Task: inverse folding
């Protein structure tokens, strides 16, 4: 079963943390200070809900990253060199109702082999190798 990773904006102790679920089961939360590695990813969006938010409705859960695995990592200098040349993605339905890449191209349902999330930035990191990272924690249900 795939994991769902999304930025949690609900009030409470997990506000502005990355929420990790598998199906309906909560797996955990990751602080923005942690660097996440997601493997086997797809950018997901409920287009009708995000369009309503774009048109002024209150925010609701409408986008996430679906993936095969999630881990907290430490990235080496070589990893950052690779990611400096990579594509970046963002989602904010108040500004635009779809996932966008760093060229402002719509990216809903885009499949990405490896994503790194660092300080809220979502980075396509397909060129990373095992020498570029150190895995600190793997999320499991």
Result:
């Amino acid at each position: 079963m795939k994991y769902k990773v999304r930025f949690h904006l609900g009030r409470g102790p997990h506000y502005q943390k990355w929420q990790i679920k598998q199906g309906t089961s909560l797996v955990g939360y990751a602080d923005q200070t942690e660097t996440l590695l997601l493997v086997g990813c797809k950018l997901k969006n409920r287009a009708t809900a995000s369009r309503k938010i774009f048109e002024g409705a209150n925010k609701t859960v409408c986008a996430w990253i679906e993936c095969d695995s999630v881990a907290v990592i430490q990235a080496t200098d070589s990893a950052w060199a690779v990611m400096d040349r990579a594509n970046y993605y963002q989602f904010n339905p108040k500004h635009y109702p779809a996932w966008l890449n760093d060229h402002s191209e719509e990216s809903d349902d885009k499949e990405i082999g490896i994503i790194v999330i660092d300080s809220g930035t979502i980075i396509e990191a397909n060129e990373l190798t095992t020498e570029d990272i150190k895995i600190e924690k793997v999320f499991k249900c």
Summary: Residues 3-138 form one domain. The helical segments are 47-54, 77-83. Residues 42 and 86 are 16 Å apart (CA to CA). The mean pLDDT is 95.
